[in-house]
Amino acid sequence: MARYVVDVMPKREILDPQGKAVLGALPRLGFDRVLDVRQGKRFELEVDGEPTDQTLADVRKMAETLLSNPVIEDYSVSVVELETQGSDQ
Question: Where are the transmembrane segments (predicted)?
Answer without folding.
Answer: none
